């Protein structure tokens, strides 16, 4: 396995874990478990951070003159990174919305 392939697979693994954590956070928020939902978002942030670090490392290498060969696997990893980032943003808004709904329901 070459360097780009390994980086791509590591990114995809980190992002997959982050996505699972994010989806679980939405489920927990829908059940009224807001502290757990926020903890899951925080855990997903760590996984997303690892993927971002790998990605940014490649950007830094290219900025220093190293030619980075893009392949379909890396493009897939980037796509997963961006869509999961968007999902996280949406999940954070959903948690807030669920909190407000539970507050209104319990008044």
Textual characterization of the structure:
This protein is mainly alpha-helical and 107 residues long. The protein has 3 helices and no strands. It has helices at residues 3-30, 34-63, 72-105. Helix 1 (3-30) packs parallel to helix 3 (72-105) and helix 2 (34-63) runs antiparallel to helix 3 (72-105). The radius of gyration is 17 Å and the shape is elongated.
List the helices and strands and how they pair.
Elements: H1 3-30, H2 34-63, H3 72-105
Helix pairs in contact: 1-2, 1-3, 2-3
Summary keywords:
107 residues, mainly alpha, 86% helix
> Beta fraction of the residues?
under 5%
N-end to C-end Cα span: 58 Å
Estimate the helix proportion, in percent: over 70%
Helical run tally: 3
> How many β-strand runs?
0
> Main β-sheet, in a few words?
none
Using only CA atoms, what is the Rg? 17 Å
Mean pLDDT figure: 95
Global morphology: elongated
Q: What class do helices, strands and sheet pairing give?
A: mainly alpha
Task: Provide the low-confidence segments as ranges.
Answer: none
Query: What sequence of helices (H) and strands (E) makes up the elements?
Result: HHH
Tell me briefly what this model is.
Keywords: Phosphotransferase system, Sugar transport, Transferase, Transport. This protein has 107 residues and is mainly α. The protein is built from 3 helices and no strands.
